[in-house]
Amino acid sequence: MSLSKQQRVGLVADIHGNFSALLAVMEALDTIGVDQIFCLGDTAGYYPQVNECIDLLRERKISSVMGNHDWYLASGYCLRSNMANICIEYQRTAVTPQNLAWLKSLPLEMEECGIRMVHGGWADPLDEYLQPTENYFRSLRGKYFASGHSHFPEIFSSDGKVWCNPGSVGQPRDSNPEASFAIFYGSNFQIHRVKYDIEETIVQCRSAGLPRKVYGGLRSGSRNLVEG
Length: 228
Known about the structure:
Largest sheet: 5 strands, mixed
CATH architecture: 4-Layer Sandwich
CATH topology: Purple Acid Phosphatase, chain A, domain 2
CATH superfamily: Metallo-dependent phosphatases
Order of helices and strands: EHEHEHHHEEHEEEEEHH
Number of helices: 8
CATH class: Alpha Beta
Strand order of the largest sheet: 3-2-1-9-10
Structural class: alpha/beta
Distance between the termini: 46 Å
Low-confidence stretches: none
Mean pLDDT: 94
Strand content: 15-25%
Shape: globular
Protein backbone atom coordinates (compact mmCIF):
# COMPACT_ATOMS: atom_id res chain seq x y z
CA MET A 1 0.00 0.00 0.00
CA SER A 2 1.36 3.40 -0.98
CA LEU A 3 0.99 6.53 1.08
CA SER A 4 0.51 10.09 -0.05
CA LYS A 5 2.52 12.82 1.65
CA GLN A 6 -0.69 14.17 3.15
CA GLN A 7 -1.39 10.96 5.05
CA ARG A 8 0.06 10.06 8.44
CA VAL A 9 1.09 6.70 9.84
CA GLY A 10 1.58 6.10 13.56
CA LEU A 11 4.35 3.75 14.70
CA VAL A 12 4.49 2.21 18.16
CA ALA A 13 6.86 -0.38 19.63
CA ASP A 14 7.83 -2.11 22.86
CA ILE A 15 4.52 -1.67 24.68
CA HIS A 16 5.43 -4.47 27.10
CA GLY A 17 2.08 -4.85 28.81
CA ASN A 18 2.04 -1.22 29.96
CA PHE A 19 -1.60 -0.43 29.32
CA SER A 20 -1.54 3.02 30.93
CA ALA A 21 1.23 4.10 28.54
CA LEU A 22 -0.53 2.58 25.54
CA LEU A 23 -3.76 4.43 26.32
CA ALA A 24 -1.88 7.74 26.49
CA VAL A 25 -0.14 7.08 23.18
CA MET A 26 -3.38 6.10 21.45
CA GLU A 27 -5.03 9.27 22.73
CA ALA A 28 -2.11 11.34 21.42
CA LEU A 29 -2.26 9.64 18.02
CA ASP A 30 -6.00 10.23 17.82
CA THR A 31 -5.54 13.87 18.74
CA ILE A 32 -2.83 14.38 16.12
CA GLY A 33 -4.82 12.42 13.58
CA VAL A 34 -3.30 9.44 11.78
CA ASP A 35 -4.67 7.28 8.99
CA GLN A 36 -3.12 4.02 10.19
CA ILE A 37 -1.11 2.66 13.11
CA PHE A 38 1.43 -0.15 13.05
CA CYS A 39 3.20 -1.90 15.93
CA LEU A 40 6.86 -2.91 15.69
CA GLY A 41 6.57 -5.73 18.21
CA ASP A 42 6.91 -6.55 21.90
CA THR A 43 3.37 -5.99 23.05
CA ALA A 44 4.24 -8.73 25.57
CA GLY A 45 6.85 -8.80 28.32
CA TYR A 46 7.58 -6.98 31.60
CA TYR A 47 4.29 -5.42 32.75
CA PRO A 48 1.05 -7.15 33.78
CA GLN A 49 -1.65 -5.92 31.40
CA VAL A 50 -0.73 -7.92 28.33
CA ASN A 51 -4.36 -8.85 27.58
CA GLU A 52 -5.56 -5.26 27.75
CA CYS A 53 -2.78 -4.17 25.38
CA ILE A 54 -3.36 -6.95 22.86
CA ASP A 55 -7.13 -6.47 23.04
CA LEU A 56 -6.71 -2.79 22.20
CA LEU A 57 -4.47 -3.51 19.20
CA ARG A 58 -6.88 -6.15 17.95
CA GLU A 59 -9.94 -3.93 18.46
CA ARG A 60 -8.29 -1.14 16.50
CA LYS A 61 -7.04 -3.55 13.83
CA ILE A 62 -3.43 -2.47 14.38
CA SER A 63 -1.10 -4.83 12.52
CA SER A 64 2.09 -5.86 14.29
CA VAL A 65 5.31 -7.72 13.67
CA MET A 66 6.57 -10.20 16.24
CA GLY A 67 9.03 -9.02 18.88
CA ASN A 68 11.39 -11.14 20.94
CA HIS A 69 9.16 -10.93 24.05
CA ASP A 70 6.14 -11.83 21.93
CA TRP A 71 8.08 -14.92 20.84
CA TYR A 72 9.08 -15.73 24.43
CA LEU A 73 5.46 -15.69 25.56
CA ALA A 74 4.21 -17.59 22.51
CA SER A 75 6.95 -20.17 22.15
CA GLY A 76 9.95 -20.03 24.46
CA TYR A 77 12.12 -18.26 27.00
CA CYS A 78 14.73 -15.52 27.20
CA LEU A 79 18.28 -16.88 27.41
CA ARG A 80 19.87 -13.71 28.78
CA SER A 81 17.49 -12.32 31.42
CA ASN A 82 15.95 -14.12 34.36
CA MET A 83 13.89 -11.01 35.12
CA ALA A 84 12.34 -11.15 31.64
CA ASN A 85 11.44 -14.80 32.24
CA ILE A 86 9.79 -13.99 35.58
CA CYS A 87 7.54 -11.51 33.77
CA ILE A 88 6.86 -13.93 30.92
CA GLU A 89 5.89 -16.66 33.41
CA TYR A 90 3.41 -14.26 35.00
CA GLN A 91 1.95 -13.33 31.61
CA ARG A 92 1.73 -17.01 30.68
CA THR A 93 -0.72 -17.49 33.57
CA ALA A 94 -2.79 -14.50 32.45
CA VAL A 95 -2.85 -14.36 28.64
CA THR A 96 -6.07 -15.56 27.02
CA PRO A 97 -6.02 -18.34 24.40
CA GLN A 98 -7.21 -15.86 21.78
CA ASN A 99 -4.43 -13.40 22.54
CA LEU A 100 -1.82 -16.15 22.63
CA ALA A 101 -2.99 -17.26 19.18
CA TRP A 102 -2.68 -13.65 17.98
CA LEU A 103 0.92 -13.49 19.21
CA LYS A 104 1.77 -16.76 17.48
CA SER A 105 0.32 -15.46 14.21
CA LEU A 106 2.51 -12.35 14.02
CA PRO A 107 4.90 -12.09 11.06
CA LEU A 108 8.60 -11.33 11.44
CA GLU A 109 8.44 -8.53 8.89
CA MET A 110 5.85 -6.47 7.08
CA GLU A 111 5.92 -3.77 4.46
CA GLU A 112 3.10 -1.23 4.52
CA CYS A 113 2.73 2.35 3.34
CA GLY A 114 6.20 2.21 1.82
CA ILE A 115 7.86 1.28 5.15
CA ARG A 116 9.74 -1.95 5.77
CA MET A 117 9.14 -2.95 9.41
CA VAL A 118 10.71 -5.48 11.78
CA HIS A 119 11.21 -5.56 15.53
CA GLY A 120 15.00 -5.89 15.74
CA GLY A 121 16.81 -5.56 12.42
CA TRP A 122 17.13 -7.13 9.01
CA ALA A 123 19.97 -9.42 10.08
CA ASP A 124 17.85 -10.76 12.96
CA PRO A 125 14.20 -9.60 12.93
CA LEU A 126 13.59 -10.60 16.55
CA ASP A 127 16.73 -9.76 18.48
CA GLU A 128 19.13 -7.46 16.64
CA TYR A 129 20.05 -4.21 18.35
CA LEU A 130 20.39 -2.27 15.13
CA GLN A 131 23.26 0.19 14.81
CA PRO A 132 22.38 2.32 11.75
CA THR A 133 25.12 3.01 9.22
CA GLU A 134 25.15 3.84 5.54
CA ASN A 135 26.68 0.44 4.78
CA TYR A 136 23.95 -1.36 6.74
CA PHE A 137 21.12 0.04 4.66
CA ARG A 138 22.89 0.25 1.32
CA SER A 139 22.18 -3.37 0.41
CA LEU A 140 18.59 -3.37 1.68
CA ARG A 141 15.74 -2.96 -0.75
CA GLY A 142 13.55 0.03 -0.02
CA LYS A 143 13.81 3.63 1.13
CA TYR A 144 11.96 3.83 4.46
CA PHE A 145 12.58 1.49 7.39
CA ALA A 146 11.34 1.19 10.97
CA SER A 147 12.24 -1.08 13.87
CA GLY A 148 12.21 -1.06 17.67
CA HIS A 149 13.82 -3.29 20.31
CA SER A 150 16.41 -0.87 21.75
CA HIS A 151 13.82 1.36 23.49
CA PHE A 152 15.80 4.38 22.25
CA PRO A 153 14.01 6.75 19.81
CA GLU A 154 16.17 7.58 16.83
CA ILE A 155 15.97 8.71 13.21
CA PHE A 156 18.80 7.97 10.78
CA SER A 157 19.11 9.19 7.21
CA SER A 158 21.87 8.50 4.70
CA ASP A 159 22.22 8.05 0.96
CA GLY A 160 18.50 8.30 0.35
CA LYS A 161 17.53 5.75 3.03
CA VAL A 162 15.64 6.71 6.19
CA TRP A 163 15.24 4.58 9.31
CA CYS A 164 13.26 5.27 12.46
CA ASN A 165 13.13 3.65 15.87
CA PRO A 166 10.03 5.14 17.54
CA GLY A 167 11.31 4.33 21.02
CA SER A 168 9.31 2.46 23.62
CA VAL A 169 5.70 3.02 24.56
CA GLY A 170 5.91 1.07 27.78
CA GLN A 171 9.51 1.15 28.98
CA PRO A 172 11.60 4.15 27.82
CA ARG A 173 15.33 3.74 28.51
CA ASP A 174 16.71 7.10 27.36
CA SER A 175 16.34 8.92 30.70
CA ASN A 176 13.00 10.35 29.60
CA PRO A 177 10.08 8.57 31.33
CA GLU A 178 7.48 9.77 28.81
CA ALA A 179 6.05 7.17 26.42
CA SER A 180 7.56 7.41 22.96
CA PHE A 181 6.11 6.88 19.48
CA ALA A 182 6.62 8.14 15.94
CA ILE A 183 4.63 9.41 12.98
CA PHE A 184 5.55 8.89 9.34
CA TYR A 185 4.39 11.73 7.11
CA GLY A 186 4.97 10.04 3.75
CA SER A 187 8.54 11.25 3.34
CA ASN A 188 9.85 11.81 6.87
CA PHE A 189 9.52 10.50 10.43
CA GLN A 190 8.95 12.48 13.60
CA ILE A 191 9.36 11.31 17.20
CA HIS A 192 6.71 12.25 19.76
CA ARG A 193 6.61 11.90 23.57
CA VAL A 194 3.62 11.87 25.89
CA LYS A 195 3.19 11.66 29.66
CA TYR A 196 1.21 8.78 31.11
CA ASP A 197 0.11 7.54 34.53
CA ILE A 198 3.30 5.79 35.64
CA GLU A 199 1.96 5.27 39.16
CA GLU A 200 -0.94 3.24 37.80
CA THR A 201 1.49 0.90 36.04
CA ILE A 202 3.52 0.53 39.24
CA VAL A 203 0.33 -0.30 41.18
CA GLN A 204 -0.47 -3.00 38.61
CA CYS A 205 3.04 -4.44 38.92
CA ARG A 206 2.86 -4.58 42.70
CA SER A 207 -0.59 -6.19 42.59
CA ALA A 208 0.81 -8.84 40.25
CA GLY A 209 3.69 -9.51 42.62
CA LEU A 210 6.37 -8.57 40.10
CA PRO A 211 9.82 -7.68 41.51
CA ARG A 212 10.63 -4.02 42.05
CA LYS A 213 13.47 -4.20 39.54
CA VAL A 214 10.89 -4.67 36.77
CA TYR A 215 9.27 -1.29 37.33
CA GLY A 216 11.97 0.57 39.27
CA GLY A 217 13.16 2.65 36.33
CA LEU A 218 9.79 3.83 35.04
CA ARG A 219 9.79 7.13 36.92
CA SER A 220 13.22 8.09 35.55
CA GLY A 221 13.28 6.32 32.20
CA SER A 222 16.34 4.40 33.34
CA ARG A 223 17.76 1.66 31.10
CA ASN A 224 18.81 -0.24 34.24
CA LEU A 225 15.23 -0.48 35.52
CA VAL A 226 16.41 0.41 39.00
CA GLU A 227 15.08 3.55 40.61
CA GLY A 228 17.72 6.07 41.69
